[in-house]
Amino acid sequence: MALFLLAPTYGVAASRPAPAENVQLLSRMALPDDEASVPFGTGEKSLFEVKFGAIHVGNGSLEVLGVESVRGRNTWHTSFTVQGGTFFYRVNDIYESWIDTHTLNSLLFIRQIEEGSRERAQNFEIIPEKGVYIERTREADKTLRTVAQPLDEGAFLYFVRTVPLKVGETYDFNRYFIPDRNPVRVTVLRKERVTVPAGTFNAIVLKPVIKTKGIFSEKGQAEVWISDDSTRMLLQVKSKLSFGSLNLYLTSYTPAKTRN
Question: H helices of the chain, where?
């Protein structure tokens, strides 16, 4: 029931692992002059209501928490959460990403999934310069190959906002950090006016597809609305799943304190 299931979330339950010891997460600093030019920045926050069909079942948030150092690289620390459910199904999903401010590559990714009776926590350290990612668990670390410019679920939410989008075009991105999940395909369906609790906006409507289960699976029918302006904020998500329709609607948007 999570919004961005870009990778399978099934598996045995696990407690949330701690970040890698050699990653300095608490060093917040001013933005560098030569960082990538992007439509977001520290302090940006979007809040959403989550509906199952027409029923309000929870809330979500998408936020840039700050700039932090990971292995000596400046990164945006972002968080995406979906919380709520009904009497028969509960969800509490958290995606935390650390995105290089120069390259937009993912350097660290923490995913915590609680969906119904299924729970899983995962910690990935992603090292583009070595072409590997490390899945850290209590039992053992696994080192696997990654792509040249890796992105995780949360990072893709921000990356797509930096891409020029033309109606009718389909874009394939071989950037998901687990290679066999590529390509991530984004089709630009149309432009339209859309009204959400936060207001009425001009929007670009996208159809994202990835080789996995969940909302954006190859068999899915998800659509995503982003604003057709300089902010490219996420406005709305509608999806059709086997158990019903899961939708997110923007309720409020706080712009970045600083934006390059």
Answer: 153-159
Count of domains forming the chain: 1
Q: Is residue 31 within 8 Å of 101, Cβ to Cβ?
A: yes
What is the domain range of residue 235?
45-254
d(CA 14, CA 79): 20
Q: Could you tell me if residue 180 is inside a domain? A: yes
pLDDT in 10s for each residue of the chain, 260 residues: 344 433 333 233 333 444 444 344 333 333 444 456 899 999 999 999 998 878 888 999 999 999 999 999 999 999 998 887 665 556 678 899 999 999 999 999 998 876 555 667 889 999 999 999 999 988 889 999 999 999 998 899 899 999 999 999 999 999 999 999 999 999 999 999 999 999 999 999 999 887 765 555 555 578 999 999 999 999 999 887 656 677 899 999 999 986 55
Written as six digits, the tokens of 225 are 């609305």
The verdict on residue 36 lying in a domain is no
Residue 206's closest CA among 186, 185, 182, 234? 186
Virtual torsion, Cα 125, 127, 132, 137, nearest 10 deg: -10
Residue with tokens 């339950």: 13
225's enclosing H/E stretch is strand 223-227
Is 146 a member of any domain?
yes
Angular region, 91: left φ>0, alpha ψ -120 to 50, beta rest: beta
